[in-house]
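Sample intake sheet
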Amino acid sequence: MQRVLPLVAAQAPPRLIGEPLSAFAAEVQAALDTKPGTRMVVFPELHLFGDSYPDQQRAEVLQSSAEPLDGPRVKELRELAADLGIWLVPGSVCERGPEGQLFNTQLVLSPEGGLAGYYRKIFPWRPFEPYDPGDRFTTVDLPGTGRVGLNICYDAWYPEVSRQLAWMGADVILNVVKTTTPDRRQELVLAKANAIVNQVFVVSVNCAGPTGMGRSIIVDPEGNTLAEAPDDAPVLLPADLDLSAVERVRTHGTENLNRPWSQFREGEAAVELPVYQGRINPATWTPPSYKP
C-alpha cells in the first residue's frame, strides 16, 4: 500500500519574538501555495523566537518568552493548523515546564487543531543553550499515512536518538534546526547517515540567513537526496514522501543488500553495551511495527 506524505520544508529566517502570528500565517500559506495538496509544513527550530539581543541578554529574553503548552501561543498555533487543515510543525517553542523548567519543545499540530505531539530537546547544545533537557522520545501518528519521529538540531549528533525513534516505528524523522555555525556541513552527513543506518526518511530543515546557515535537506531511507537547499537563502523545499519505501528498503535491503533490522537469528546471544550498562537483545531488536 502506498502511503504518501506531501510535505514542504520551509527554510526561513526566524521571526522576531512577539511578532503577530498573522505574519507566520502568511509564511505557512505561501508554503501551501508552493505545493497544492500539501499535508504537512515544517519550519526550523525556534522559528518564532528570533531576537536581536546581545548574547548576555538572550537567555533572559527566552526565559521571559516561555509559555506552558496550554498557553496562548500554542492555542493560536492550533487554531492556525485547524484553519488551514494541515499538519503543522512550527519548529520548536520556548516552553515553561510544569516545574518552572525552560524547554526547547518541538510541536506537531493536527488538521483538527489538536496538539498531536510534542518533544522536549534531550540534547541542548551545551554550553551554549540555556534549556533544560527533556526525558522522553516522541513519535506522532498521521492516520492513514505513517508515523513521524521528533528530533531537534543537536539531537542528530547522538545516533541513539534516531535509532530509538526508528525502533518506535517512525517512518520519517523531522529534525528541526537552528544552526548558525560552519558545522552545518557535518550535519548534512549526519542526516544521510541517520537515514541510511535506520532506513527512514530524514527531513532536516535549518533556518535561513542572515541568522542560519541554511542548506536544508530531505533524504530517503537509502540516503538519497530528494530535495536540498544549495545555500542559506530562504527557500521552500517540497517533496512527496512515499512512506511505503521504508518497509520496502527494510525488506529488500539498502541497495538490495543491507538489512540491519533483520540482523539477528533466533536464539543468538545479546550484545553487551558497557557504555549504556545495557545490551542489544536480539529478541527485541527489530521495531515492533516491522515484520520481516
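Comment: The chain has a mean pLDDT of 95. The domain at 4-253 is CATH 3.60.110.10 (Nitrilase/N-carbamoyl-D-aminoacid amidohydrolase).
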